[in-house]
Design a protein that fits this description.
The chain is α+β, with helices and mostly antiparallel strands and 233 residues long. The chain contains 10 helices and 6 strands, in the order H-H-H-H-E-E-E-E-H-H-H-E-E-H-H-H. Helix 2 crosses helix 4 (46-61) and helix 5 (110-116) packs across helix 6 (122-132). The protein is globular, with a radius of gyration of 21 Å.
Length: 233
């Protein structure tokens, strides 16, 4: 896996800033894994994609993930920090074949999620995702709620990193709840932050010295930082 360079971040930000987070995550993985066709990445099980996103975050921006959210009960702002390397231990392997009663399924992929997300109703989207992942070629099924829950649980067991849930507790009101960890969004936040910082550096040094973007980006981090210090002084 390639570490994302400054040039990579700028290119990704420019291409993907208006894309859905699913597509942003795949775009970043495509830059880090150029030997893997983009269409193939979209068909990976979600757990495999999430593991690759964790590895890319660690390699390019470090293992620390910082975030904030609001308590759904009282609105209190909470900040959290986690080491995403914990998600890689122990290694989680997805199971390719999932059996529930007479039905067979495979773990969902980012492409599957994107197709299901076109359905605005969450319940219908869940049913659509399950149907997309069905592999037994049987007659269309009208699953009951308990069957949908069982299929969802089996899918989660088969691909442990497909859905990452974090536990939170509000210090103000004591409410406890869970939230999904959107790894693609957090990675994109880092890419966007670095890109905007680089663009500001390019602007500052171009105005001061007349250098081109390529010349500014070719500078090492310490040299660029020293030039910026002198300009600001």
């Amino acid at each position: 896996m390639r570490v994302l360079s400054n040039g990579d971040c700028l290119h990704l930000w420019e291409r993907g800033r208006r894309l859905h987070p699913l597509d942003q995550g795949l775009l970043a993985l495509g830059a880090a894994l150029p030997e893997t066709p983009y269409e193939e990445l979209g068909g990976w099980p979600l757990g495999r994609c999430h593991r690759a996103l964790v590895e890319l975050h660690c390699a390019s921006f470090g293992p620390a993930l910082n975030g904030q959210l609001s308590c759904p009960e009282c609105g209190e702002k909470l900040e959290f920090r986690m080491d995403v390397r914990a998600l890689l231990e122990p290694p989680a392997q997805s199971i390719a074949r999932i059996e529930v009663g007479d039905y067979e399924f495979r773990p969902p992929s980012p492409r599957d999620l994107a197709r299901a997300a076109r359905e605005p109703d969450p319940q219908l989207a869940a049913r659509k995702l399950i149907q997309i992942c069905r592999t037994d070629n049987g007659d269309p099924a009208d699953w009951r709620e308990n069957e949908l829950e069982e299929i969802g649980e089996k899918m989660s067991e088969a691909d442990p990193l497909a859905e990452i849930r974090l536990n939170f507790a509000c210090a103000r009101c004591g409410h406890e709840w869970q939230e999904n960890l959107d790894l693609a969004t957090f990675l994109w936040i880092e890419i966007e932050a670095r890109s905007k910082r680089l663009l500001f550096d390019v602007h500052t040094l171009a105005v001061a010295y007349g250098w081109s973007e390529a010349e500014v980006l070719s500078l090492s981090e310490p040299r660029r930082a020293r030039y910026l210090e002198m300009v600001r002084a």
